[in-house]
Specification:
single chain, 249 residues, alpha+beta, 60s Ribosomal Protein L30, Chain: A, CofE-like fold, 2 domains, five-stranded mixed sheet, three-stranded antiparallel sheet, 7 helices, binds guanosine-5'-diphosphate, binds manganese (II) ion
Length: 249
């Protein structure tokens, strides 16, 4: 398997045809998967925003005040308002805002970025990254994974995750297959779109590299069942349930 960054993409602006920009630089072969950083999908979809667009109400002020009290750092209630607008729910309000986005991804600050956003304060995640992946996939005639850099519980550091995908299943279901001793696998559902996103993130980088897309060549899904379940359903998420009751000490 080979993962290579797509070189030479310009700064992406609202209204740009992102698929065409990518297609001018790479011609995906059969079996290639194209991974695209959500940051440029958002830019193309006009998801830059300024703090002044978010008028804080009582809830946003309360969230910002509490965050400020717990962390000791100044917090802008307009930013809290932006996170609230992008979220279905806040699982934690301190020491950071852990949000369930409207499309089901759980991440700090609803994935709103303040880096690599020239000319604006904020960059919101795409409204529906799987719909974005579907449009890109149709134009590129290849499976597409839309990625974001995200933290993870239990471990320091961030890595790439899939926030949307189209043209391949989210996961490879090994259940019912056998290990080397012939034991049947009972629980293993491999979240391949996250693994592809993490691999792509290795070459796209996080800073000023200017490489928001990567092509994965020579990887095969193989002869397995597929599943599109990636974001855990609420009733099936004990961590989410525990966090709702948790308050920082
Ligand atoms: P995120 O992980 O989706 O939030 O995106 P990052 O901010 O980490 O950026 C990923 C990569 O895309 C980095 O190499 C950035 O330099 C690059 N990048 C971000 N925006 C643009 C853009 O508009 N054009 C180009 N060519 N590269 C960009
Ligand atoms: Mn991001
Ligand atoms: Mn990143």
């Amino acid at each position: 398997m080979e993962v290579s960054a797509v070189e030479g993409l310009p700064e992406v602006r609202a209204g740009d045809d992102l698929a065409a920009l990518v297609a001018e630089r790479v011609d995906p072969a059969d079996g290639d998967v194209v991974c695209v950083a959500s940051t440029v999908v958002s830019k193309a979809e006009g998801r830059k925003a300024d703090l002044e667009e978010f008028a804080p109400g009582d809830r946003a002020r309360a969230v910002a005040d509490r965050l400020e009290a717990v962390t000791g750092d100044p917090k802008d209630p307009r930013f809290a308002r932006a996170v609230l607008e992008e979220s279905e729910e806040l699982l934690t309000e301190a020491p950071f805002l852990l949000a369930v986005t409207r499309f089901g991804h759980v991440t700090v600050n609803a994935g709103i970025d303040r880096s690599n956003v020239p000319g604006a304060d904020l960059l919101l995640l795409p409204e529906n990254p799987t719909a974005s992946a579907e449009r890109l996939s149709a134009a590129l005639e290849a499976p597409v994974v839309v990625t974001d850099t995200s933290g993870r519980p239990f471990r320091y550091g961030q890595r790439g995750v899939a926030v949307g995908w189209h043209g391949l299943p989210a996961a490879r279901d090994w259940r019912g297959e056998r290990d080397r001793d012939g034991r049947e696998l009972g629980v293993t559902v491999q979240a391949v779109v996250d693994e592809l996103a993490a691999a792509a993130n290795l070459v796209t980088g996080e800073g000023g590299g200017g490489t928001p897309a990567a092509v994965v060549r020579g990887w095969e899904f193989g002869d397995h069942d597929g599943s599109d379940e990636l974001f855990r359903a609420d009733e099936d998420d004990v961590i989410r349930a525990a966090l709702r009751d948790w308050r920082p000490g």
